[in-house]
């Protein structure tokens, strides 16, 4: 797992690395001596201690045995596996196709009552039209080098999943940067349809759509795109992976960040003006 500025997963891996380093130092072993005891090159020890490489269960057992702390291995293995599971490669997720990925999340969406979404780059999936979604997913298929591009079918599945915003029991609070309205990720017709749909969706009783104007003076730069699902999960989108955050303290941190971003946004007539301006500039 490469280091990530988003850091929830990297911090988890770093905690494991720090504990292993502490055990080595407590045992009075150098990096080279620990490596020799474990039967690997000392560079591997350095990579693990610097959280550049996640240790396998076998690695953790060998490490703990080398420092005379074999009874610590079980807890550290669980902690390490948890850290690694937080960070999932996009290519691993889409191996079965983009449509499968969309459908696999349907249950999680249906059991969520409150969606809080911040996006700095794209219209949120729950508010996408089929044409816009197909363009976005087509880019994903190309970037990830998928052997089969099923972005059109995936877009249909995404739109079908998004129908829940018209059903009782679900609420969507979305905040996007004004730049999202301007990024040309689809052709002019698809962009116009998408922007037009934002005017409609933003007026739905279950949807709150806020837009942060580009001219807004801010004390923080735009955050990475993230989704809060009730109070149980935060999904953070990176270039190479999706990070799932489940620790209550971190979820609360994202919730506070969302409220701060929501306070920068404009709503109602002001938001509509920004969308209409973007539509006009398409032509």
Automatic annotation (TrEMBL):
Keyword DNA-binding set for record: yes
Keyword DNA-binding attached: yes
Annotated ranges, domain HTH cro/C1-type: 20-58
Top-level lineage group: Bacteria
MF terms in GO: DNA binding
Keyword terms: DNA-binding
SUPFAM superfamilies: lambda repressor-like DNA-binding domains
Protein name (record): DNA-binding protein
Naturally occurring in which organism (per UniProt): Streptomyces antibioticus
């Amino acid at each position: 797992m490469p280091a990530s500025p988003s850091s929830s997963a990297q911090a988890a891996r770093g905690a494991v690395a720090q504990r292993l380093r502490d055990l080595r130092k407590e045992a009075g072993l150098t990096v080279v001596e620990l490596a020799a005891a474990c039967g690997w090159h000392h560079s591997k020890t350095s990579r693990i201690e610097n959280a550049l490489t996640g240790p396998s269960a076998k690695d953790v057992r060998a490490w703990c045995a080398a420092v005379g702390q074999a009874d610590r291995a079980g807890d550290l293995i669980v902690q390490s596996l948890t850290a690694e599971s937080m960070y999932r490669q996009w290519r691993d997720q889409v191996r079965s196709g983009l449509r499968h990925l969309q459908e696999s999340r349907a249950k999680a969406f249906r059991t969520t009552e409150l969606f809080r979404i911040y996006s700095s780059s794209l219209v949120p999936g729950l508010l996408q039209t089929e044409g816009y979604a197909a363009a976005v997913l087509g880019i994903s298929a190309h970037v990830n080098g998928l052997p089969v591009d099923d972005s059109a079918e995936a877009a249909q599945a995404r739109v079908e999943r998004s129908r829940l915003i018209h059903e009782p029991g679900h609420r969507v609070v979305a905040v996007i940067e004004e730049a999202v309205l301007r990024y040309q990720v689809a052709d002019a017709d698809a962009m116009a349809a998408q922007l037009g749909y934002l005017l409609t969706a933003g007026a739905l009783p279950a949807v709150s759509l806020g837009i942060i104007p580009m001219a807004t003076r801010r004390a923080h730069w735009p955050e990475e795109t993230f989704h809060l699902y009730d109070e149980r999960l935060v999904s953070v989108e990176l270039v190479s992976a999706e990070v799932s955050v489940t620790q209550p303290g971190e979820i609360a941190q994202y919730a506070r960040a969302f409220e701060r971003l929501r306070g920068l946004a404009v709503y109602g007539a002001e938001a509509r003006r920004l969308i209409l301006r973007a539509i006009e500039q398409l032509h």
